[in-house]
Specification:
The structure is a single chain. With about 375 residues, this protein is an alpha/beta fold. Among the domains are: about 170 residues, NAD(P)-binding Rossmann-like Domain (Rossmann fold), CATH 3.40.50; about 80 residues, no CATH class. It has eleven helices and 16 strands. The radius of gyration is 22 Å and the shape is globular. Bound molecules: flavin-adenine dinucleotide and uridine-5'-diphosphate. The site of flavin-adenine dinucleotide has 35 residues, from α1, β2, α10 and α11. Belongs to the UDP-galactopyranose/dTDP-fucopyranose mutase family.
Length: about 375
């Protein structure tokens, strides 16, 4: 039986560890933070599950993944319906008939489509090549200016012209009066929070977990002591940035408990103007239909910032320059495939959602164990 080291107790690392232990392998998990669960970590404050690293809504159309994650928690029926606040004007998201009606007074899908057609004519039929062009071609110039440009440029610290089109295609555009942010078949929030999912995955006699341990403090020894290593940290850091640094986007979360019963009436409110320095405010109790302290609530302001050494690298910046550099790192990684598997958002430098991380980890398991 091979001895495994998993670097990072996030969702990828935990899924791999759980599956390896299920097959009788011994697994050591090391995690540099002082807790498990990576970015899906939640903590209870006054009966409210606080999402410590930003709003996390589980959504998927992959039935296998949905059944899989339901082994570890029971999910509520939460449906994400964020609202956008543009200088005090409130719009429904994602872009749907409610948004179009509020903005233009249109009532039928046909009227909304013709308004968008008229506005996208500024592109002169050009195939969208960046986020700005993609947004205008999907929803027209008014929505781009009010609900997309300011938010996007704050979030990514770059002009929307320099960002890849796929980022805005994450959001549905719908010609129905439906404020569900996702098109997926399954959606919810685990009752009792996300941390329990990872804790249950790691709760096996064959798995031992050490937190506050950084792989890079003893990289050579770890590589010598273990047969196989699953690495879910930053791929460029693993190779000591030898080909140059990949770019990441970081965030600063400002979380506070306030003596108010209901602060904003919704779990997520996006501030889409360019002047407000934060992108969104989360009011955590609304993920669980207001459950938790009466007369108290917990809110988090999310401030985007450029990643620098020492910050958490929350998002890969998947523009063409970084993707090309990642490809070169991936070639180095392939040469180490005998020893190391690179997985997860940072190991694969990919803007993965939770369900995609689970699917990717299960796929890695299949390959690793020849199934
Ligand atoms: P991580 O959770 O980052 O885990 C990697 C772990 O490795 C971390 O704990 C890190 O500390 C550890 N590590 C790194 N380097 C080292 C080292 N050198 N030594 C030891 N340990 C190390 N997904 C959704 O599906 N729905 C959402 O609503 C959603 N919202 C999100 C909101 C925000 C603000 C962010 C940032 C992400 C969101 N996601 C969402 C994505 C989701 O968080 C990820 O898909 C998932 O958590 C990735 O899991 P992972 O294991 O790849 O990475
Ligand atoms: N976006 C926007 N306005 C919004 C919400 C999102 O322009 O009100 C854009 C922005 O570029 C963002 C992208 O859509 O980065 C994807 O949004 P999502 O909510 O998926 O971002 P995440 O939750 O992953 O940060």
């Amino acid at each position: 039986m091979a001895k495994y080291l998993v670097v990072g107790a996030g969702l990828f690392g935990a899924t791999f560890a759980y599956e390896a232990a299920k097959r009788g392998h011994e697994v050591k998990v090391i995690e540099k933070r002082d807790h498990v669960a990576g970015n899906i970590y939640t903590k209870e404050v006054d009966g409210i599950q606080v999402h410590q690293y930003g709003a996390h809504i589980f959504h998927t159309s992959n039935k296998t993944v949905w059944n899989y994650v339901n082994q570890f928690a029971e999910f509520n029926r939460y449906t994400n319906s964020p609202v956008a606040n543009f200088n005090g004007e409130i719009y429904n998201l994602p872009f749907n008939m409610n948004t179009f009606n509020k903005l233009w007074g249109v009532v039928t899908p046909e009227q909304a489509k013709s308004k968008i057609e008229e506005q996208k004519s500024v592109l002169h039929g050009k195939r969208p090549e960046n986020l700005e062009e993609q947004a205008i071609s999907l929803v027209g110039t008014d929505i781009y200016e009010k609900l997309i440009k300011g938010y996007t440029e704050k979030q990514w610290g770059r002009s929307a012209k320099e960002l890849p089109a796929f980022i805005i295609r994450r959001l549905p555009v719908r010609f129905t009066y439906d404020n569900n942010y996702f098109n997926d078949s399954y959606q919810g929030i685990p009752m009792g929070g996300y941390t329990q999912i990872v804790e249950k995955m790691l709760d096996n006699d064959l798995i031992s977990v050490s937190t506050s341990v950084d792989f890079f403090a003893d990289k050579d020894k770890y590589l010598k002591d273990y047969d196989r290593v699953v690495f879910t940290g930053m791929i460029d850091q693993y190779f000591d940035y030898c080909l140059g640094e990949l770019e990441y986007r970081s965030l600063r979360f400002e979380t506070k408990e306030i003596d108010v019963d209901n602060f904003q009436g919704n779990a997520v409110v996006n501030y889409t103007d360019s002047k407000t320095p934060y992108t969104r405010i989360i009011e955590h109790k609304h993920f669980d239909f207001g459950k938790g302290g009466k007369g108290k609530t917990v809110i988090t302001h999310e401030y985007p910032k450029e990643w620098k050494h020492g910050d958490e690298p929350y998002y890969p910046v998947n523009n063409s320059k970084n993707n090309a550099l990642y490809k070169s790192y991936k070639e180095l990684a392939d040469k180490e495939a005998e020893k190391v598997i690179f997985g997860g958002r940072l190991g694969q430098y990919r803007y993965y959602n939770m369900d995609q991380v689970i699917a990717a980890a299960l796929n890695t398991v299949k390959i690793e164990f020849g199934e």
